[in-house]
Structure formats: structure tokens, C-alpha cells
Specification:
Length: 253
């Protein structure tokens, strides 16, 4: 069972964030860390490979400046190797371009299963995984709260508002996992040391043969409007009616 996990490396959400003055895009020049959302996919992949009794977990990431810090964390958890796509031409890449690039990198690993998070913690469009599936011509299953392999099929409990759907799909497939799918392990000291020498293949767009990488232009960015003060309703016997009238005016009821 060979599993690819897409892992996004992001600026530390706990640190102050800034936009680049000219492009208005997120400043990604510093150290990037493993997106917490992707730790669940890494853990799920490790467990599935262990249960299958063989195979390995390959990480795929697209990030600027040849950044591998986040990948090393996932390698320390137990993944075998990583493919990093890093290319100056990807500056300002949009989600579809990211999906094209990741799909091309995933193809090289010939996986039985591709896992991603449902959405990243910084861009959170939640659109990349299904675009990867479409580009690769594979089935996609979203919001997995459990994943099991049965021969050449994957069985997923897919989280819904009302409960969950039981979905079965032939492999290979792209599955997005929720934070409820498994509890990610902490990298051990041995894992951290081992991760230093695990292979990370760094590729450019030319290596992947991707020629249609387009970006998007952010023309301007404004501060969000400050919230207006709320209206306090003092109940003088008609409080309920006034609240109902207020909600009707907002078209909430
Ligand atoms: C304005 C702008 C500028 C950008 N500039 C750059 C840049 O300079 N350099 C650059 O490399 N990228 C850049 N990107 C790409 C960006 O960081 C995202 O990777 C991409 O837009 C995906 O969108 P998202 O974060 O909403 O993903 P979502 O669809 O929310 O992600 C869902 C899941 O897909 C997987 N995934 C998403 N993105 C990646 C990734 N990059 N690598 C591995 N797995 C991933 C993860 O598992 C993630 O949890 C830029 C994007 C935008 C919008």
C-alpha cells in the first residue's frame, strides 16, 4: 500500500503574519511549518501502510524557497520520503495551479491512495484536493472521518451534517480527511534524527513538464470594516416584539 499525502508548509499561524507590499500576497519568506491539518493525513497514511503490512508513505508539497522544515516534521512522524516542488515561477500560484503541480508530482509516485486535509489553515479554499482528483481522473471522497482499505477498494465514513455516509470507491482515489480521523503521533527523538537523512526530491516546473502554471493578481487589500456597535434592547414589556421586528428587518426570520 503506497500512500501519497499532500502536506502544505505554511507560515507559523502563531507568529505575526504580513503581506508582501508589492504583491499583497502572504509573506512566505521565513521558516514554514507543517500545517496541523495535514498531520492527520500523515498519521492515517502511516496507519494504513502499517495495517497493509508493507508499502510506504510519500509526502508531496509545493512551497517556495526550497523549504523543507514542515516536510521534515512529517518525515519524523514516519513517512519514507518526500517530493517538493519549488519554483520562483509559482509565486502567486492560485489553487488550480497548485492542483496541477501537485497532480504532476503525485503521478511520479504512482500511489494506491492519495490523502489530503479537507482545507489548509492559511488559504482554506478547500478546492485543491478535488481539482487534483479531476486532473488525475480519479474518484474523490471528501470529509473522511474514517478510512479503511479492503483489497482494491477504500471504504470511507464521510462526515455529513446529519451523521455520516458509508462510501466505497475503487483505488486509486483521492480522500480528504477531517481532524477526527485519527490522533497524530508526536515525532520521537529517533524519528527526528532519522528524518534528517530521508530523501527529499526537489523539482521545478520544468522537471514536472508543467507549462500552464498561472497565478492570480491581488490588485488591492483593505482592512475589514470595524464592527458597528450592537443595538441594546431594554425590555419595557415590548422587548420580544422589538427583537422580532429587528430580526425581520435583517431578513433572518
Ligand atoms: C495569492 C496566492 C499566492 C500564492 N503564492 C505562492 C507562492 O509564492 N509559492 C507557492 O508555492 N504557493 C503559492 N500559493 C499557493 C498556495 O499556498 C496554496 O498552496 C494554494 O493556493 C492552495 O490553496 P489552499 O491553501 O486554499 O488549499 P486547500 O484547497 O484549502 O487545501 C486543501 C489541502 O490540499 C493540500 N494542499 C494545498 N496546497 C498545498 C501545497 N502547496 N502543497 C501540498 N499540499 C497542498 C493540503 O493537504 C491541504 O490541506 C499562492 C496562493 C495564492 C492564493
Amino acid at each position: 500500500m503506497n500512500v501519497v499525502v499532500c502536506v502544505k508548509q505554511i507560515p507559523d499561524p502563531a507568529a505575526p503574519q504580513s503581506l508582501e507590499p508589492g504583491t499583497h500576497t502572504l509573506d512566505r519568506s521565513g521558516k514554514l511549518i507543517l500545517d496541523d491539518s495535514d498531520a492527520y493525513g500523515v498519521e492515517m497514511a502511516l496507519q494504513l501502510a502499517e495495517q497493509a503490512g508493507g508499502g510506504e508513505v510519500t509526502l508531496v508539497s509545493m512551497a517556495p524557497n526550497g523549504e523543507t522544515s514542515g516536510l521534515r516534521t512529517a518525515l519524523a512522524m514516519g513517512a519514507a520520503k518526500a517530493i517538493l516542488v519549488s519554483d520562483d515561477a509559482l509565486k502567486g500560484a492560485d489553487a488550480l495551479t497548485t492542483a496541477k503541480v501537485l497532480a504532476a508530482a503525485i503521478k511520479r509516485a504512482e500511489p494506491d491512495l492519495i490523502l489530503t486535509a479537507t482545507e489548509s489553515s492559511d488559504g482554506y479554499t478547500g478546492t485543491t484536493p478535488v481539482q487534483i482528483a479531476e486532473i488525475l481522473g480519479l474518484p474523490s471522497i471528501t470529509f473522511a472521518k474514517s478510512v479503511a482499505i479492503d483489497g482494491s477498494t477504500v471504504k470511507v465514513d464521510r462526515q455529513t451534517e446529519a451523521g455520516y455516509d458509508e462510501v466505497t470507491s475503487p483505488l486509486p482515489a483521492v480522500v480528504t480527511v477531517t481532524a477526527g480521523v485519527v490522533e497524530p503521533r508526536y515525532p520521537s527523538f529517533k524519528g527526528i534524527m532519522a528524518a534528517k537523512s530521508k530523501p527529499v526530491e526537489t523539482l521545478t516546473l520544468a522537471d514536472l513538464g508543467v507549462t500552464n502554471a498561472n497565478g492570480q493578481e491581488i490588485t488591492s487589500v483593505d482592512d475589514a470594516e470595524a464592527r458597528a456597535a450592537g443595538e441594546i434592547v431594554v425590555d419595557e414589556g415590548d422587548g420580544a416584539q422589538r427583537i422580532v421586528a429587528f430580526l425581520e428587518q435583517l431578513k433572518v426570520i
